[in-house]
């Protein structure tokens, strides 16, 4: 298998019926970077910047942030990298950050973009580091846990201000700056077109989205496996995001754990996803699956299943059957 994956690495990521799929990797620390070349990923679809903060014993200084971001962009060369602004709070606690007190529901609490908008100094420092590191190159930045449009507007104001500040001091700026939002809070589902109109791209955080849609703590082992994301209702929801992206001409990726398992990746391709981001180790198995896939057939099957009036169909079993019939 490992040999097959290595062989596949330099082959195009295309289905049997000629549809190109972008397989990207998730990363968060400098140690992850060699895997970009080893896995043959098309880029870094999610760079979790909070990891640098989580492994440190105090807030990483601006210079340390800038160095990491520059190293990441250097390693990626001409492959795209999407940096997510710090997603702390919730399950990602910083022991040295006293701002977050005891919360009854940390997952629903003061976290991610909520926290960085309330402590704009954190976002300003990070943005300045990103803008400097990406001088002369493209910069892609993504906001976690967006709940309403105004958060995108506020973040953009802070970012624009940093851009103006740096250009006043004649810094070498990025050639282009793309701002994206993660879709992981259900409220965005009823303002999808507006959100897509306000950003350059979106990425579905299926881990949190599933947690919030099913009211199921993603870290609670007692509930692990109780509800299946490969189910009609959740796939209908994910399909709606992909379709709205198509309608509005917005690039949509998905970067949760679902992307990294061949059977769930199969479901994602079948409902319209053309770019997914996963752990580096998952790229080989997912690529092996998709190069054997006739996407047209799968799409028809998925649409038929999701458009049927009953929502209790066993989609997982159906996908396994589909996969083995085409082996
Ligand atoms: C997600 O929520 O799906 C996601 C990609 O982000 P994280 O797992 O870091 O919350
Ligand atoms: Mg998340």
From TrEMBL:
Top-rank lineage group of the source organism? Bacteria
Q: Where in the cell is it found?
A: Cytoplasm
Family to which the UniProt record says this protein belongs: Belongs to the PEP-utilizing enzyme family.
Protein known as: phosphoenolpyruvate--protein phosphotransferase
- Organism for this UniProt entry: Neoaquamicrobium microcysteis
Phylogenetic placement of the source organism: Bacteria, Pseudomonadati, Pseudomonadota, Alphaproteobacteria, Hyphomicrobiales
Q: Which residues of the full protein are shown?
A: 427 to 753 of 756
């Amino acid at each position: 298998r490992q040999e097959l994956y290595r062989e596949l690495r330099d082959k195009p990521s295309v289905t049997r019926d000629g549809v190109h799929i972008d397989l990207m990797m998730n990363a968060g620390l400098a140690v992850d970077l060699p895997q970009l070349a080893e896995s043959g990923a098309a880029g870094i679809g999610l760079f979790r910047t909070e990891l640098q903060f989580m492994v440190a014993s105090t807030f990483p200084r601006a210079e340390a942030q800038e160095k990491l971001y520059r190293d990441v962009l250097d390693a990626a060369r001409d492959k795209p990298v999407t940096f997510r602004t710090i997603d702390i709070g919730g399950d990602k606690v910083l022991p040295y950050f006293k701002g977050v007190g005891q919360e009854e529901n940390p997952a629903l609490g003061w976290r991610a973009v909520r926290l960085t908008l309330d402590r704009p100094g954190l976002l300003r420092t990070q943005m300045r580091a990103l803008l400097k590191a990406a001088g002369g190159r493209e910069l892609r930045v993504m906001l976690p846990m967006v709940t309403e449009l105004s958060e995108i507007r506020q973040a953009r104001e802070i970012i624009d201000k940093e851009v103006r500040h740096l250009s006043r001091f004649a810094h070498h700026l990025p050639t282009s700056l793309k701002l994206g939002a993660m879709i992981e809070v259900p409220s965005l589902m009823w303002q999808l077109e507006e959100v897509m109109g306000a950003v350059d791209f979106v990425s579905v955080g299926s881990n949190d989205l599933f947690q919030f849609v099913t009211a199921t703590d993603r870290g609670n082992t007692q509930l692990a496996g109780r509800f299946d994301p490969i189910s009609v209702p959740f796939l209908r929801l994910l399909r709606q995001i992909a379709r709205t992206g198509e309608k509005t001409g917005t690039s949509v990726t998905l970067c949760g754990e679902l992307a990294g398992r061949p059977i769930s990746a199969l479901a994602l391709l079948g409902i319209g996803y053309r770019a997914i981001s996963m752990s580096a180790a998952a790229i080989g198995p997912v690529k092996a699956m998709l190069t054997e896939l006739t996407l047209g057939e799968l799409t028809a099957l998925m649409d038929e299943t999701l458009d049927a009036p009953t929502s209790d169909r066993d989609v997982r079993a159906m996908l396994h059957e589909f996969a083995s019939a085409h082996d």
